[in-house]
Design a protein that fits this description.
This protein is about 30% helix and about 20% strand. The protein has helices at about 50-60, 90-95, 105-120, 190-200, 225-235, 245-255, 260-265, and strands at about 20-25, 30-35, 80-85, 100-105, 130-135, 155, 180, 215-220, 240-245, 270-275. Helix 1 (about 50-60) runs parallel beside helix 2, helix 1 packs across helix 6 and helix 4 (about 190-200) runs parallel beside helix 5. The chain is globular, with a radius of gyration of 18 Å. The model is unreliable at about 65-70 (pLDDT under 50).
């Protein structure tokens, strides 16, 4: 059993980087989340963007019964995919709200924190929860090379001849009702791969199915980089780009009982991307 931190309050991520095992409150539930802060990869620790996006989705999506949006057919639960899932907070939160979720990240993140956190928490979710399936997804692999029939990998930049296992059955895949990503705008080199991946996911089902919304949460640490990413989303990838008003995020933070000072989260922005082609 891993040692646990005490969830005295919902604390912003920068105050908990040193804690290896978080007991994280969400609504009436608590997630048990391992994290690493060893500098090996950005994705193995909790970040503020994931916290803010999770609180916003909790306040604005509410709980979703099966077939609530109409994209997922056959009486299934609504379906989401999380790019750069990290330690799995947003994916587990959506599942606890009744969504089926694919949580994706690079191999190192999947193997060190994400898979373990999902496995540890999945059986402890509230009644009527959805599920979470963890898969590797490397955005540098173009969407035409992705596969949806593999239980562990959608796309990997590692040797492709090792990706041979396929599985029939209840493997989640397109179409999606929702696409989310947080804390993923941090490198100029990854802007195009990320936006290409988001665009590919929006158009991963038949043309008659409407494209799902994308919620992108970021911290404006590098204004030039953020502005570049948003302009690329609008001008190159033909997304309609709309910022969620800060007052909506403030309301979600307050309703969750997070006693944060505004300075804790004022650089966080949530953007809604809607594909126009």
């Amino acid at each position: 059993m891993l040692p646990a931190s005490q969830p005295d309050s919902l604390r912003p991520a920068h105050e908990t980087k040193h804690i290896p095992f978080l007991v994280y409150p969400f609504r009436t539930h608590r997630f048990h989340l391992a994290q690493l802060d060893n500098g090996a990869t950005n994705g193995s620790a909790l970040w503020l963007g994931a916290q803010c996006l999770t609180l916003f989705l909790s306040d604005n999506l509410k709980n979703k019964p099966p077939s609530s949006t109409g994209l997922s057919s056959g009486g299934n639960r609504p379906r989401a995919i999380d790019l750069g899932s990290g330690i799995g907070l947003s994916a587990l939160a959506l599942a606890s709200m009744g969504w089926d979720v694919i949580a994706t990240d690079l191999h190192d993140v999947v193997s060190t924190v994400l898979s373990g956190n999902v496995s540890r928490n999945l059986t402890q979710l509230p009644p009527d929860s959805g599920t979470v399936q963890v898969r590797e997804l490397d955005w540098t692999v173009t969407p035409d090379q992705w596969r949806w029939d593999h239980p562990h990998i959608i796309a990997s930049s590692q040797a492709q001849d090792s990706i041979t296992e396929a599985q029939q059955g209840s493997i989640l895949g397109p179409p999606f009702d929702l696409i989310i990503t947080s804390d993923t705008i941090y490198s100029t080199a990854l802007v195009t791969p990320l936006l290409r991946a988001l665009h590919g996911l929006c158009h991963s089902s038949s043309p008659e199915v409407r494209c799902p919304p994308v919620y992108l949460c970021l911290e404006r640490r590098d204004p030039a980089l953020v502005d570049y990413a948003l302009s690329q989303a609008r001008d190159t990838w033909n997304f309609k780009v709309e910022r969620i008003p800060s007052k909506k995020l403030a309301k979600a933070i307050e309703k969750a009982g997070a006693r944060w000072d505004k300075s804790d989260w004022e650089d966080v922005e949530i953007w809604k991307l809607t594909s126009r082609s």
